[in-house]
Amino acid sequence: MQAKAPAGTGDAVPVVEAVRFEHLETLAAMLLQAEAFVLELAGEPVGELGGLVQRAEKMPPGVVLKGEVGLWAATPVACDGQTVGILVLQSPETRPEPDEGQCAIILQLAKVAGDLVAGMQAQRASAEQARMLDMVEDMSGVGWWHMDLQKGSARCSRRVGEIHGLPSGQGDYSLRAGVHHYHPSDRAELEAALDAAMVTGEGYNLRLRLNHPDGQQRTVMSHSQGMRDAAGTLHGLFGVFRDVTEQEAVVAKLRRNEARYRLLAENVSDVITRVKMDGSSKYISPAIQSMLGWTLEEMSGQSTDYVYREDRHKVLKAIQQAVKTGKPTRLEHRAVHRDGRILWVECTFKAIRDDNGEVDDVVVVIRDDTQRKLLEGEVIEAKERAEKAAEAKTEFLANMSHELRTPLTSVIGYSGLLKNSPGLTPTQRLYGDRIAASSEALLMVINDILDYSKLEADAVELENAPFDLRQRITDTAGIIESQCAAKGLGLKVDLDKRLPEILSGDASRLRQVLLNFLSNAVKFTASGSVGVKVFGAETADGRYRLRVEVSDTGIGLSQEKGELIFGRFTQADASTTRVYGGTGLGLAISRRLIELMDGQIGYESEAGEGATFWFEVPLDFDFALPVSVAVDTVPDMGVQGRILMVDDAEANRELVKIILGTLGLEVETACNGVEAVAAVRRRDFDLVLMDVHMPQMDGLAATREIRQQVREKHLPILALTANVGGDQVQKCLDAGMDGHLPKPIQVADLAQTLKKWLQAE
């Protein structure tokens, strides 16, 4: 360093000389790509540079001059509050003036120059210089190293140690100490560059792969420059390192994701802009032109220029929120293309604070979101179409169920009356049995389809009521007893003596699963027997885990076929449907029901060796069984009453009239809602059985009309309809009906319900 005394010390020289600081100049060249030197105040300034020094002497510290006398930048150099010189940086005239970040580095370098010019004690100067350089390193992410060619040693900064995984702190190392850290393929290039630099003093700029001590391979950029004394003799090398691993990883990740997001990424790039607190913006990345057709020069400088007018308040609010919370804020809003098109963009706002903790500006990342919005609209549209399709399916199933159940009501009812008629010949009785069995099979198909539809829609609600377990099992097995007898099959029911008498759960759904198992067992067994085994045990949580097994000696099924049978519309093979019939829904429904009860279901079988189907469900203990639950037979009515039966199907009116007549009840009929309302006006009835779908006036409208007319007493009105869906039942209750009975008619349920309401009257 060629130091000069400050002005006014008596040693003034009437010239202005440049003081050479190699480290400082090298850092300026590396960080700012500018040639730097310090002009020291030494006597009376002379010439243009002297005039610059004279002006600098009067300027406060922290001011950066730009464009002075053909220079790129200059700033006063001060020590202890007194200006002692000026830091001058030269660069090509075509280069733009330094921005805020570069000015900050210039000021930091000026501080270092001030300390050097002041000639402080070596130890303090070294510590302060290291601190300043650390600050520069922290700002730039660059570490420096110095190689002394005479001593054959090297010294590096803290950042270099961190990059290479060396012990913390600066230190001295041998001339070639760091070469072995690099990838073998890069060592030769690095050693050749070092050899050339130590001989010629020419610097180098290399991209190197670094083998980090933790096992990772990192990528660094290394740049160096020769150091010469006043005589021009090369005495050392000075260089910097920058770890670019993360930056390159980001680029590599974007490349890996390119194929996945090609549809958007090929034509869409993020826009980055910095927004000042007054709403102005001095920088918008060039991607704004490809995204919205604008350039920064074509805009007024306000950050909201590209924002759709009605959304500008949202953008300003998002910026304020980012500043207030200090957290990134996201916002979707509309933007205006230069050609007038409206686009959707997604913006992320992040407030940037200066060294004093004050918000300097907000960085905004803008991404074209138009394609996603379009896809979102398509998804919403597809969802609406799916919902409409589901509604159409539900309506179709409800209509089909109604249309099938209505004639089945007559078929099942009259076949039951026919079978019990006296004087039938054996052949006639056989025909009646065949009709009854076929109609029951058809009803089971309808119920299966409706049940599966409900299960798919998660519309099945389980009951939890006490029931007599032994009675339920015995009654369910009794249903298929006649079928077993007709095929010559034995039927054995094995109930564990330790079974609880009363349990609480959904008895009807358990009966449905057990009946499906039993029906399948009888269907697929030509000879032998069918057995039911029921047992269980108390669980640790105080419940009872019931296990039911149904075994047969039928055709069985192989392992590969067994994997299919619990699927919907699936049987072991196509011939099964042709030979044995069925929808292939029974086991699928059974599995879903058992799973809804938090149970398990399965089977054990081999082809030709019969099969055992089982299920396990957790149930609650109960010790009280209501009388209404225990009754499962046609009760002795013991009551009288006048019933109005309303149905547009003549066969159904006649059937119900016959059934109720055998129960000792007086029955009058009507064929639609208009006749029903007129009948209620004409005479008193104790109860009304009301169909829903009827011409002229349906059952819902008729019920509402009757409720308006008959106010002096409550007339029980029960729906007797083929509409059995949960929402359809609710519509009946909402219209003013008191209950619901499904078609086809179950005589025992009908009689029990009528007795309940007539006794209440």
Task: Return the structural class.
Answer: alpha+beta
Straight-line distance between termini = 118 Å
**Total strand segments:** 28
How helix-rich are the residues, as a percent range?
40-55%
Give the overall form: elongated
Total DSSP helices: 24
Describe the protein in words.
The protein is α+β, with helices and mostly antiparallel strands and 761 residues long. It is 42% helix and 24% strand. Strands 17, 18, 19, 20, 21, 22 and 23 form a 7-stranded mixed beta sheet that branches. Strands 8-7-6-11-10-9 form a 6-stranded antiparallel beta sheet, with helices on both faces. The protein has a 5-stranded antiparallel beta sheet with strand order 1-2-5-4-3, with helices on both faces. Helix 1 (22-32) packs antiparallel against helix 3 (100-118). Residues 1-15, 261-268, 569-583 and 625-634 have low confidence and may be disordered.
